[in-house]
Amino acid sequence: MKIAVIGTGGVGRTLAAALATLGHEVAVGTRSVENTLARTEPDVFGNPPYSQWQQEHTDIQLLPFAEAGAFGEIVLNATNGANSLTALEAVGAENLDGKVLLDVALPLDLSQGMPPTLTVANTDSLAEQIQRTYPEAKVVKSLNSVAFPVMVDPSRVPGEHSVFVAGDHEDAKAAVRSLLEGFGWPTGAIIDLGGITGARGAEMYSRLYFTLAGVLDTFDFNIKVVRGA
Amino acid sequence: MKIAVIGTGGVGRTLAAALATLGHEVAVGTRSVENTLARTEPDVFGNPPYSQWQQEHTDIQLLPFAEAGAFGEIVLNATNGANSLTALEAVGAENLDGKVLLDVALPLDLSQGMPPTLTVANTDSLAEQIQRTYPEAKVVKSLNSVAFPVMVDPSRVPGEHSVFVAGDHEDAKAAVRSLLEGFGWPTGAIIDLGGITGARGAEMYSRLYFTLAGVLDTFDFNIKVVRGA
């Protein structure tokens, strides 16, 4: 399947590489191919320059946002959540309409340090904003509750643990489930939170998630939902 | 130990009964003893009238807020979170200063139905508001992440699963850990989220919690934090 990954950071690269390994055709979308390839320093999160990563992933194309969007049968939003709406505007509604739009982003405000606050929460969520902005896209929120290495390799955390999907379109959620299973998530670990407003819970959990990452001193963890009798 | 439980609803009654069973002297605090005992109908959540519950728990005193506060060596806030600051004002700073104040409340806005939004979130939390209002009290947030039957009986959910504590006072957190262990929470299940701002994560998790309760169709569940290698 042709998949567009919007965003060149650690999340985008990790998802792109894992999808390519699984046999998908992958394009990464960026605002400016030239600027992205011109960088020679690690980014603020310590990721090496994209050009260096590119050399190890020559099967993955780097395209401008709109071209990547046009390429993808499925589009993944792996941008910084605070900038996602701006990035998706550059991808363009014409390249999103009718498609599965898997939103893994968190609308983090890191200006006050860790743990971050959210730029939208409680009465709305990033995924809802995206779905409202692109009513013809089929937005599914998922994977935002774990660190990017765990997204594509749940075995980094022992045993079965949970991942969430939320969205208004059942066919799109089925397609995302399929991707998750490809990454190694067991069917029983995938919990359907219902419609796209379910994304609010998944996004707001991030405050507990980042607090836990701090006290556990690792991002290699997750939560398992355990049900009573 | 003498423990005051502020709040006469399902949470307060469940905590009061469990604490009395464990051998503590318990007083429940209410705005008006007369009004609380005069009610003959179930409350909005379907709890039977307090007077009926009282007959089955004759060892538990019902006292006005301030008298309950004065009685307790430890004070539990089990009020409706949206009204907690008003209720604690009636308890009085003089009855909270220097004491462990275990806050189990969630600041829920149920006006739009389930799952509820929060009256405070993201950049603040109820527990932080309480700590700021009563700087001499030792506020600990805990137990708010599970339903009240699970609070006092974690075995309702199979295996080990997690409960959180957050607060600025180590001695107060140790006292709360002790209460939790009394309820049956294993030591290793209690995760310290650090200072009182850690309460923000525990409270914001409630959106995911109520969403999960809806899709699982039960409140008998919890999350287990699973750490990688």
UniProtKB/TrEMBL annotation, chains A, B:
It holds the Pfam family F420_oxidored. Keywords: Oxidoreductase. Residues 2-105 form the Pyrroline-5-carboxylate reductase catalytic N-terminal domain. InterPro entries: NAD(P)-bd_dom_sf (IPR036291), P5C_Rdtase_cat_N (IPR028939), STEAP_metalloreductase (IPR051267). Gene3D superfamilies: NAD(P)-binding Rossmann-like Domain. The keyword Oxidoreductase applies. It comes from the Bacteria. This is NAD(P)-binding domain-containing protein. It comes from Brachybacterium kimchii.
